[in-house]
Give the backbone structure.
Amino acid sequence: MQGKDTVNSTFHQLFRPIFNKNFLEHLKKLGVDKYIKKLSALQLIILVVYAQLEQLSGLRDISNSLNNKNLSKAIKLNSISFSQVSRKLKDLPSGVLNILFKSLATEIIKDVGVNALNKHLGRIHLIDSSTISLCLSQYRWAEFRKTKGGIKLHLRLRFFEEGVIPEKAIITPAKPSDKTQMDVLVVEEKGAINVFDRIYVDYKKFDSYCKNGVRFVTRLKKNAIKHIVEELPVDPNSPIKKHQIVYLGNPVTYKMKHKLRLIETEDTEGNPIIIITNVFELKPEEIGDIYRNRWQIEIFFKWLKQHLKVKHFYGKSKQAVQNQLFIALITYCLLKLLELKTGYKGPLLTIKRLLHTCLYEPFNSFVKKLYKRPIRYSRGRRRQLDHEAIYQETLRQVIADETDHLADLTYDPVIL
């Protein structure tokens, strides 16, 4: 699809991972484009990814985007009607997009080298879901409440030191409980730790996980019934307030057969958090840190909703909505791969914004602009610094042995 004159463009570097040999063979095997004369599956994916990046409002905007000669030339498509885009988006099997998403996620994990990270704590997988509201009168299949529709995106993210990588996605109507997808999302491999919120608490499943060696860290509900087997010592200087070995459940309904660790710590505002886990080899402080990482999945959902097109859908059918969500995840993966290719350590949003103006420029020009420092035309109102106060605060931190942050390159002594 790419000509020789565009092979070095930023556009080509962004979409290069889509032209995966295995994925192209899969498209051919399924015969997705067998009787298609215009708008192939790859062209549709690129068009909708472009629409996600630009946050285009509707199908007509996607159709009109081909008036851009650069885009039209890059995908070798002069024009397409909005109805053709609608039909293709509705008819393309969601499984095809899911395969592409998984392929891109695997490539990211390979490029990041996650296996070299978290060696001590193990492989951490974050599990959660997010509900996207829909108008029930237009999306009858997505019944949620009497007057409200919705769709639910269930995700498993791979956590590593520099962020998260989406590795598995399931899309369902919003009404079924999150627990219905729990077994599908949980990783059973040795060394993996599954982290999820208290909405997934299920004592029977927990017993099954303990029996089969599936490790998890989660939060306990406030009204949970627990039988304390052993009180373990706690360091008074530690953020851990309580450390116990317990059985969970009520003998009348269901009481667990396996013991769990109960760890009580505090959030940033001092509110108590009760964590339960079947991971016994790690310190309670490490378990607390692992659960705190769960918020990364909330941040991921927020980023997806704010910066990609997942709150307004181009089609009304169930498959069209699912396809758009999968393409949003594909778009995120493409941005992440571009970030890795450039070695950029700043916000992913910066790359997305720069693509808006540099998509058809040479890739080396894009990289130069990405690393270019902003020019300040005005010195602005200069802040009067109290150098003595800065010195005294730094001296106090050294005496109190609070010096870890001083080795951090992001530390600014001016901000006290």
Summary: The longest strand covers residues 148-160. Confidence is low (pLDDT under 50) at residues 1-5. The two ends are 55 Å apart (CA to CA).
